[in-house]
Design goal:
- The chain is an alpha/beta fold.
- It contains 10 helices and 9 strands.
- Helix 3 runs parallel beside helix 4, helix 7 packs parallel to helix 9 and helix 9 crosses helix 10.
- The longest helix is centred in the last third of the chain and has 14 residues.
- The radius of gyration is 19 Å and the shape is globular.
- The two termini are 24 Å apart.
Length: 308
C-alpha cells in the first residue's frame, strides 16, 4: 500500500536501516527577540522555555552529559544504536562562533550520534556561522548537519503580528546559502494562526516546494500559559481549530506538498502543564490515527495535488 506521506521515520529507516530518535538538547542560548536586540518579549506564541520544554535541562551539564541523560530515557524503547542530537531551545546559532563550534563538535564526536539538527532563526546565520557549518560538514562526512528554520508563515502581515522580527526575504536568502553548502533545511510552519486559512497554508506549502527543502514541520498552533498569545486567547481574539478542522487543513497541505520533502512533524507536543488549548492535541497518537483514517477514506497521499 502506498504510504500516506513521506515521514522522517521512513527517511531514517531507508537511509540508516534502523529507527533513530531525537535527543533534545539545551545549549544555553538566548534569542534576539528576547535579549533586547530586536525585542524583549519573544514571539507572541513562544513560552519561557523557548520551545525547549522537552530538551534535557542544562543545569550545568555538558552536551555529553545531556546526551547521556537523553540516552537513558530510551533504554526501554526498541531503537537502533544511533540518535539525533537536536539543539532545540531558543536560537541555536545565536552566540560566539567559538562556543557554537565547541557545542556542535561535542555532539558530533559522540559515538551514538548520527548527526545534529539545529533549530534557529534565518537572521542568525551570518557568514561566520555558515563557514563553521561548512567546516564541520567536511570534517564529519559520516554524520549529517540539518538546520531547522522557524519561518511559521510566509505572510508578512501574520509574521508582524507574531513579532517574528525578520522579513521573508531573509529566510529565502538563508535557504539559498545553506543549499549552496549542501546543508539540508527543515522549515517550521504553524497551522491555525489567527486570520489564516487554507489559501495561506497553500502559500506556505508552495514556498517549501519552490525551494525544494529537505523537510517540513507542520505544527498545530498551541496556546501556552504565560505567553502574549494566551492573553489574546483569553480576550477572545484567537480562535482555535477543532480537531476536524485541523485534520482537514493538514490533509490539504500534505496533498499539495512535494513527495520529495520529508515530513518531520504533523501535530506538535504542547507540554501538559503549559497547554491552555487545544486540549485535544494532547492525545498525539489519536490525532495521527485520525489523520491516517481520513487520508485512507479520501484516498489522499502526499503530492496527490502537487505539480512541479
Amino acid at each position: 500500500m502506498k504510504p500516506y506521506y513521506y515521514s522522517l521515520s521512513d527517511y531514517l529507516k531507508a537511509a540508516y536501516g534502523e529507527k533513530i530518535y531525537k535527543i533534545a538538547l539545551d545549549g544555553g542560548f538566548s534569542c534576539p527577540n528576547r535579549d533586547g536586540t530586536l525585542d524583549t518579549r519573544g514571539c507572541i506564541f513562544c513560552s519561557k522555555g523557548g520551545s525547549g520544554e522537552f530538551a534535557i535541562p542544562t543545569k550545568g551539564l555538558t552536551i555529553d552529559e545531556q546526551i547521556a541523560a537523553g540516552l537513558s530515557l530510551f533504554h526501554e524503547k526498541k531503537t537502533g544504536h544511533r540518535y539525533i542530537a537536536y539543539f532545540q531551545a531558543y536560537t541555536n546559532t545565536y552566540g560566539p562562533v567559538s562556543r557554537l563550534d565547541k557545542l556542535y563538535r561535542e555532539a558530533l564526536l559522540h559515538p551514538s550520534i548520527a548527526g545534529i539538527s539545529i533549530a534557529t532563526r534565518p537572521d542568525c546565520l551570518g557568514e561566520e556561522v555558515l563557514s563553521l557549518l561548512d567546516v564541520l560538514k567536511k570534517e564529519f562526512p559520516d554524520k549529517f548537519i540539518w538546520i531547522e528554520l522557524g519561518v511559521q508563515t510566509v505572510s508578512e502581515k501574520t509574521a508582524s503580528y507574531l513579532r517574528r522580527g525578520y522579513p521573508l526575504a531573509v529566510c529565502t536568502e538563508a535557504i539559498t546559502r545553506l543549499s549552496s553548502l549542501s546543508i539540508p533545511v527543515i522549515l517550521h510552519f504553524i497551522i491555525g494562526l489567527p486570520g489564516e486559512n487554507k489559501a495561506q497554508l497553500l502559500e506556505d506549502i508552495h514556498y517549501a516546494n519552490h525551494h525544494a527543502v529537505f523537510g517540513i514541520k507542520l505544527q498545530l498552533l498551541h496556546i501556552l500559559k504565560h505567553t502574549d498569545l494566551a492573553r489574546e486567547y483569553e480576550l477572545g481574539h484567537c480562535r482555535m481549530l477543532s480537531k476536524e478542522e485541523y485534520l482537514d487543513m493538514l490533509v490539504y497541505g500534505i496533498t499539495h506538498l512535494s513527495p520529495a520533502i520529508t515530513i518531520h512533524r504533523l501535530t506538535g507536543d504542547g507540554p501538559k502543564e503549559l497547554l491552555l488549548a487545544p486540549l485535544w492535541s494532547l492525545n498525539k497518537r489519536e490525532v495521527l490515527n485520525s489523520l491516517h483514517k481520513k487520508m485512507k477514506l479520501e484516498h489522499a497521499y502526499q503530492g496527490k495535488e502537487f505539480f512541479a
